[in-house]
Amino acid sequence: MTTRRRLVATAVWTATAVALALGFAAYQRPELAVDLANRLWACF
Prior knowledge:
By secondary structure, this protein is an all-alpha fold. Helix content is 86%, strand content 0%. The chain contains 2 helices and no strands.
């Protein structure tokens, strides 16, 4: 069971790192950040 737990933990950390990297990459294009902010604001 330890191997499965380690595999799950590795998958979670990898998914977190990928999500953070994509978020950082998205902010390299300012127009995308503005567009996302406008879409979020339109929900309210």
